[in-house]
Design goal:
7-stranded mixed beta sheet, 3-stranded mixed beta sheet, Rossmann fold, single chain, alpha/beta, globular
Length: 194
C-alpha cells in the first residue's frame, strides 16, 4: 500500500481526488477532523468554493493540524480553491487563507463557469505527452517569489507551482482521467519530509 494521503472532504470535488488516488494504489482517506489530518503522509485540498472551505476549516478548528503537516514538511497539494487557500496573497481579497505559498493569486481570473476550458500543459518533472488540464472558474497565479517555482505555464502565466513540500495548481487534474499530477504528488509523499 502506498502513502496515506488525506483529501480534505468538507466541500468541493474531494470524491474525484479520492478516486484517482485509489487507482494509484495509495491509501486515500477523506479527512474532516484534526486527528484524521494529523495521521496522513500528505494532504490534498480540492477545488470547490474557497471561502466556504476556509470557513469550514476555521469552524472545525483544522488549521493547527494542517499547520502541523506543513511544519513537518509533509506534502500539501491545493487545486483551484485549494491553491487559493495555500497562497499568501489573494489579490483584492482579505478572505481567510492558510498562507503558506509564496504566491499571489486572483480568484476566478479565467472567467465564470461558462468560460471553462480544457487545455494541455507541459509540466516540469512529468514525462510523456502534455498533461490535460480543466480550468473551471479558475484562479490565476499573478506572482511568485522566494523559492516558489513554476512547473507549468499557460499564456505566459504560471498555472502549476511548487515550493518545497507545497504543490499548487489553478486547474482540476482529477476530473478528466489525468493521473500524472497525482502520481507526482504521491512521489512527493513517498520521499523524506523537506
Amino acid at each position: 500500500m502506498g502513502p496515506k494521503i488525506g483529501v480534505l472532504s468538507l466541500q468541493g470535488d474531494f470524491a474525484e481526488h479520492l478516486a484517482v488516488l485509489s487507482q494509484l494504489g495509495c491509501d486515500p482517506a477523506p479527512v474532516k477532523t484534526a486527528a484524521a489530518i494529523a495521521a496522513c503522509d500528505g494532504l490534498i485540498i480540492p477545488g470547490g468554493e474557497s471561502t466556504t472551505i476556509g470557513k469550514l476549516i476555521e469552524r472545525f478548528e483544522l488549521q493547527p493540524a494542517i499547520d502541523g503537516l506543513h511544519r513537518a514538511g509533509s506534502p500539501i497539494f491545493g487545486t483551484c480553491a485549494g491553491l487559493i487557500l495555500l497562497a499568501k496573497d489573494i489579490v483584492g481579497s482579505d478572505q481567510w487563507r492558510l498562507g503558506y505559498l509564496d504566491a499571489a493569486v486572483e480568484r476566478n481570473a479565467y472567467g465564470r463557469q461558462v468560460d471553462s476550458f480544457e487545455t494541455t500543459l507541459d509540466v516540469v518533472g512529468v514525462e510523456g505527452a502534455p498533461v490535460r488540464a480543466v480550468f473551471i472558474r479558475a484562479p490565476a497565479i499573478r506572482r511568485v517569489w522566494g523559492d516558489c517555482e513554476a512547473l507549468a505555464e499557460f499564456d505566459g502565466q504560471p498555472v502549476l507551482v511548487r515550493q518545497r513540500n507545497l504543490l499548487g495548481g489553478c486547474f482540476h487534474p482529477e476530473l478528466i482521467g489525468e493521473t500524472r499530477l497525482h502520481e507526482y504528488f504521491v512521489d512527493m509523499c513517498r520521499r523524506e519530509p523537506a
